[in-house]
């Protein structure tokens, strides 16, 4: 389908070759009253186009959906179709990255969280600095809020360092019910399992060779790799620590998350925790003997049933 503007340009071209205006309009199916119409859309979209260009410069891997979420967070009242039209007209579209095909087994996920601070997932990701020094990063993610709780970067991270990082997170955020990880030597170490038992937290390891069972942290690693590790230049280890921590702060507080209805993980976590505190206050009012500090456990986790399923599968 040819646009109205293109047909008006064809009329002008036919007139320049000697055809009459009446004849050219009839051939191109253009009304003579609309022949000299000047669209006001470029002027109306000028400010929004400038904002989209700024977003494209600052976030080189973002597409029009994330750009729409950012302009909405900036106070714009605009729908996705308008942003997509401008994004493509400005030539800001990026080559879509190749997604790995997901395996649909039909098996329900074991230990599925229904609230914050129930299941934490953690794993390692590796990279190299420009000076040739290799480093590894320990990432810890809350599976419900999608918050990145920590990204610990160093040249060497063993089970003792993992325990130290988790100890600090437990003191700051509280103790989760489950810690999900793969079967790496740092995660199945006897010292880590003994420490988790002392902290009343369960360690759930996935089956060997099935990283999709730890999908939350794998998805986070893909985002970290695409938006930070592959996009930034690390001259040395110290710079890598600073840049990655800055990206983690932006991921939690500024970057909209598609699975959270384009809200940030920090916003979702704050909303859920505030609702849980309000519920605890209501319980305290109804039952004066209850502690106001006790936050009720979200319903529907099914942690006992899932533990039984996990035990039967491992057996």
Key descriptive features of the protein:
315 residues; alpha/beta; Nucleotidyltransferase, domain 5; five-stranded mixed beta sheet; 5 strands
What does this entry look like structurally?
The chain has 315 residues and is α/β, with parallel strands linked by helices. It has three domains: 4-34; 41-89; 109-315, Nucleotidyltransferase, domain 5 (2-Layer Sandwich), CATH 3.30.420. It contains eleven helices and five strands, in the order αααααβββαβαβαααα. It has helices at residues 4-16, 21-28, 41-58, 64-73, 80-89, 159-173, 190-198, 215-229, 237-253, 265-286, 303-314, and strands at residues 119-128, 134-142, 148-154, 178-181, 202-205. A five-stranded mixed beta sheet has the order 3-2-1-4-5, sandwiched between helices. α1 (4-16) packs antiparallel against α2 (21-28) and α4 (64-73) packs across α5. The chain starts with a helix and ends with a helix.
Question: How are the elements arranged and paired?
Answer:
Layout: H1 4-16, H2 21-28, H3 41-58, H4 64-73, H5 80-89, E1 119-128, E2 134-142, E3 148-154, H6 159-173, E4 178-181, H7 190-198, E5 202-205, H8 215-229, H9 237-253, H10 265-286, H11 303-314
Parallel strand pairs: 1-4, 4-5
Antiparallel strand pairs: 1-2, 2-3
CATH level 1 class label of the largest domain: Alpha Beta
Tell how many strands the DSSP assignment holds.
Answer: 5
Strand order of the largest sheet: 3-2-1-4-5
Q: CATH fold name of the largest domain, please?
A: Nucleotidyltransferase, domain 5
Q: Taking all residues together, what is the mean pLDDT?
A: 85
Question: Treating each run of at least 4 consecutive H or I residues as one helix, how many helices?
Answer: 11
Estimated share of beta-strand residues: 5-15%
Q: Please describe the biggest sheet, giving its number of strands, its sense, and whether it closes into a barrel.
A: 5 strands, mixed
Question: What's the multimeric state?
Answer: single chain
């Amino acid at each position: 389908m040819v646009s109205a503007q293109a047909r008006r340009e064809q009329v002008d071209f036919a007139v320049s070759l000697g055809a009459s205006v009446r004849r050219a309009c009839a051939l191109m199916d253009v009304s003579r009253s609309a022949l000299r119409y000047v669209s006001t859309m470029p002027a109306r979209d000028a400010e929004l186009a400038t904002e989209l260009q700024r977003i494209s410069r600052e976030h080189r891997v973002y597409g029009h959906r994330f750009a729409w979420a950012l302009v909405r967070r900036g106070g714009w009242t605009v729908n996705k179709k308008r942003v997509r039209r401008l994004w493509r007209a400005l030539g800001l579209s990026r080559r879509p990255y190749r997604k790995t095909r997901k395996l649909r087994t039909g098996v329900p996920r074991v230990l599925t969280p229904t609230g914050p601070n129930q299941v934490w997932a953690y794993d390692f990701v590796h990279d190299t600095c420009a000076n040739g020094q290799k480093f590894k990063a320990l990432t810890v993610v809350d599976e419900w809020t999608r918050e990145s709780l920590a990204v610990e970067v160093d040249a060497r991270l063993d089970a003792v360092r993992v325990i130290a990082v988790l100890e600090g997170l437990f003191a700051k955020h509280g103790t989760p019910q489950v810690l999900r990880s793969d079967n790496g030597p740092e995660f199945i170490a006897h010292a880590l399992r003994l420490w988790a038992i002392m902290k009343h937290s369960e360690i759930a390891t996935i089956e060997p060779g099935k990283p999709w069972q730890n999908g939350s942290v794998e998805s986070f690693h893909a985002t970290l790799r695409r938006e930070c590790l592959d996009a930034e230049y690390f001259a040395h280890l110290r710079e890598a620590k600073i840049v990655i921590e800055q990206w983690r702060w932006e991921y939690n507080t500024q970057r909209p998350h598609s699975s959270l209805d384009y809200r940030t993980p920090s916003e979702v976590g704050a909303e859920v925790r505030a609702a849980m505190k309000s519920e605890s206050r209501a319980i305290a009012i109804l039952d004066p003997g209850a502690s106001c500090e006790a936050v009720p456990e979200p319903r529907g986790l099914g942690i006992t049933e899932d533990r039984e399923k996990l035990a039967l599968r491992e057996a």
